[in-house]
Amino acid sequence: MKFAALLALILLPLTLPAALPPHSEAVPGGIAIIDLGPARGEAPVLHYRKQRVMVQQDQGRWKAVVGIPLSVQPGAQRLTPAKGAPLTFTVQAKDYATQHLTIKNKRKVNPNQQDMTRIRVERGRINAALEHWRETREVETRFILPVEGRLSSPFGLRRYFNEQPRKPHSGIDIAAAEGTPIRAPAAGRVIDTGDYFFNGNTVFLDHGQGLVTMYCHMSRIDVAPGQTVKQGEVIGAVGQTGRVTGPHLHWGVSLNDARVDPALFFEDLEGLLSRNEKL
Q1: What's the pLDDT tens digit per position in 118-158?
Q2: Bridge-partner residues for 33, per DSSP?
Q3: Which CATH superfamily is domain 98-278 in?
Q4: Which helix (H) or strand (E) segment is 126 a member of?
Q5: Which is nearest to 255 in space by CA: 265, 270, 246, 247?
Q6: pTM as predicted
């Protein structure tokens, strides 16, 4: 009986997290997948723009999974390995739409001196969370949507607040009723939480190897730093804290400290993007 039980256990299929995101696009705000050769020995260590890069094994080969910042200009880019010659890849151009928003609280557009002091302190905490690296062998890269709602603002929009230009939209906005549960799109660990001037109540989740997700404008936070969460576990609720025009979740995905399009982490990319056509 013991042998039979052991044999049955051995024969069970292994359900490991998928090694690579389901989609890649070497554009500003996209992901480049770069073949590094046969997967022998330890995984290679590489850096891109001084940030450590995710490396995963896929079909017997090492693959670098590189997040590309929205600010990158099209053209040749360089990966720097710990050993060996630099590797290059090419970033293609991509045009993003423009969005104009009216913010009633003018301090959220043009902060005063006291606000700026707070913002500078908060920026340090936010940067530290988004730059976080945790060594782990497997990374879950197939996401579920954290909130069921309307995609009110897609990734990469060139934004104007009260007709003043600001940085491109570095995540997606999902409009939903205040109090709607927010769920972890993949297993991870809470890096930090806080109430920020622009982002309001915010949670940062670490998924391993430089993959970090951010949840902003929450009405409440149900997790604490250091806590581990499973895919689908509730981490808080939709709200309208910080700089907002109504209740929604701003959801950002950071890979090697580059804000990338969350849609690339979904199997059904076309289905997800088609939700924008209903706006």
Answers
A1: 889 999 999 999 999 999 988 999 999 999 888 888 888 76
A2: 65
A3: Glucose Permease (Domain IIA) (2.70.70.10)
A4: helix 113-130
A5: 265
A6: 0.85
